[in-house]
Specification:
alpha+beta; single chain; about 35% helix
Length: about 120
């Protein structure tokens, strides 16, 4: 058993052998399955917004979450006007979408710095 582990560690098996195929299968399984299991913390930081002020993230399901910088939006009088402005900010990127819901992002002083918007097609 120790000899087999040593041979695996130093990759001494010939190409096409059973043990070689096992090693390659384990490597491929790690490459393709580890992002689903291990959180590599490789998502872009939310404070790094692109020039247009819209940052897109996958929701993991069949929808996306948009982070829209509040300074890029005109001041809305009510919720209906705000939804219209949020949709107008997202439309150049996605086209026609429906806003599920949105959530204001507040700073330490309680001021709105951005909006998180969940949309679906």
């Amino acid at each position: 058993m120790l000899r087999i582990l040593r041979n695996y560690l130093f990759w001494t098996y010939e190409r096409g052998s059973f043990h070689y195929d096992v090693m390659v299968t384990l490597i491929l399984a790690f490459i393709f399955l580890s992002p689903r299991v291990i959180d590599f913390k490789d998502a872009a930081p939310a404070h790094l917004l692109p020039a247009n002020g819209v940052f897109v993230q996958s929701d993991g399901r069949d929808s996306f979450v948009y982070r829209i910088d509040a300074t890029t939006l005109p001041t809305a009088a009510d919720e209906r006007a705000l939804r219209k402005e949020l949709k107008a900010a997202i439309a150049p990127i996605t086209g026609g979408v429906n806003i599920d819901h949105y959530q204001p992002v507040l700073d330490a002083n309680g001021s709105v710095t951005a909006y998180r918007v969940w949309v679906r097609r």
